[in-house]
Amino acid sequence: MPFALFALAMINFAVGTQGFAFAGVLSELSRDLGVTIGQAGLIVGASSITFALGAPFAAAAVAQIERRRVIVTGLAALALVNLLCAVAPSFAALTALRIAAGLATAFVGALATVAAASLVAPEKRGRAFAIVMGGLTVAFVLGVPLGSVIGGLYGWRATFAMSAMVCLGSVVLVALTVPAIAPAAGARPRLGDVLGNGRVVRVLMLTLIGFAATFTVVSFVGPVITATTGLTGARIGALQAFIGFGSLVGLALGGIASDRGRGPVAAAVACAAMSLSLLLYWLALSAPHATVPALAMGLLMFAGATALFSLIPLNLAAITLHAGTSAPVALALNGSLVSLGQGLGALLGGALTDAFGAAAMGPGGAVLAGMGFLLALTIARRDAAPAVKLVAAE
């Protein structure tokens, strides 16, 4: 695999780190800026929502511009915005800057995947996507905790300064190692072209359903761990590491399955595994308080993360294959649906908990994952149909 793929992975590492590294210092930030913790949490949503809404339109706007130039410019803007966040004089200014960060991310996010597709042969795209998206996983395993440590030692402003340095390092790495990548020939892609492509829309819906299903429970992972195992404080973070490791394994497995031509079937298997793991959460949360072994919960979180993240390279490869010249917009929309799925899952999990208790989160997510399984089977059958017709004709 070209080294440039690891530079592209660094883009996702930078984006993920700067997007969530400050989450661990929200208490200090809120005290310093004179707002509640709930209000401080709005800066997380400000950038995420801006990215989710803006990514498809940003991708269409820069579709005819050389890829590396857009990536370098966007990362440089992201570095500058995070540096300004470090010296923000008020909460209002910080919120505005996080919105600007979301906009800069919208121009950068999907292009890392688009660039990766152009650097390798089609039969290697699954593994290439796994490498590039692995940067985001490493951000949650390493970058985000590091931001919390630096913020704890030197204050919340230092966390934003660290994020700026990570983004700046990505600028240098991409500029030095990623070749110039010309945009696809043809007319400028439009969002309507993507939404009119049934094959692509089905894969996009699979992304939405998969993340909504998993985040029905994962959004409340801290309380879930405490309720099932009795662990609190820093020990929750140690158990959360199983999610990070599971996501890395899932990306690798999904990439391999995609490159071997087993994408649709592997997606169905992933959704089935996701549904099973969510049902096991129901059993764990139905048990008496703090009676589930920590290792058992860790393995359950590992399995669920493996299933979810295996979908990412599978879906990215399918979108790239079927979207044609509209791939940049389709991939950006896929990223938006990841964020939307996370938000919808959190809303569903909260509503189920309030109405029926925490144990209801698992079955609610399992039902969604089951819908994903049926959709993946539909995609597999439709992909296999042309081959069947060809054999019959011969």
**In CATH, what is the homologous superfamily of the largest domain?**
MFS general substrate transporter like domains
Radius of gyration: 21 Å
Shape call: globular
Helix content: over 70%
**Structurally, how many domains make up the residues?**
2
**The CATH class of the largest domain:** Mainly Alpha
Would you tell me the overall average pLDDT? 88
Distance between the termini: 38 Å
CATH topology of the largest domain: Growth Hormone, Chain: A
What is the count of DSSP helices, taking H or I runs of 4+ residues? 16
Low-confidence stretches: 386-394
What is the N-to-C succession of helices and strands? HHHHHHHHHHHHHHHH
Strand count: 0
Please give the CATH architecture of the largest domain: Up-down Bundle
Q: Largest beta sheet, briefly?
A: none
Bin the strand percentage: under 5%
Structural class: mainly alpha
